Amino acid sequence: MQPKTHVVDGVTFVATPYRAGTFVREDVFRRQLTITCRGEVEYPEDDPVYGTWWTPYLVTLGESGLIEEAMALAGTILAKDEFDLNSAIDALGFRPELVLIHDALGRLVLTGQAINGGDIHWGEPAISDAEIAAIAQQVDELRGEASYEAAWDNHCTAEGLRRQARALEGRLVHASWQKHARQAVLNVASAH
Prior knowledge:
This protein is an alpha+beta fold. The protein contains 5 helices and 8 strands. The strands form 2 sheets. Strands 5-4-6-7-8 form a 5-stranded antiparallel beta sheet. A 3-stranded antiparallel beta sheet has the order 1-2-3. The mean pLDDT is 90.
């Protein structure tokens, strides 16, 4: 779906599909969504005998004007395993966890969980108040379990629970994007 464009005094405006009757300057529209990927970056130890270590890292994947285009861009980058790690000096690699799409105001539009092999499982946004409340409760329970496991030095189990909580929490997108993001997820799912 390519939105309609209109030229006024030599400036191109796009009829945004996300707000009826609204036109946005084309350059602003094309970068209204920012795609990032949360994961872990690998660094070598000071002494090579000790191998490597991992630390949380957020990498920017790009910008887009449409949710479906943002999803496709993220999918392409993850499938090719081509992450821009120039700011992470000495980084050996990157292990993706979550793909996050935010609007220009920093509001969450959509989240997808990175799956082995470069695939992304896009979380269907919660829409009803009951669904949102249930997800928020599950997230709290998972974080509570993670704290309990961490207290017993079960750090791998605790991190797994935190990872589940982050993925689930990704379904709690901003209210103004819920229906659009849900439709984009359904469109992509039906295309496969």
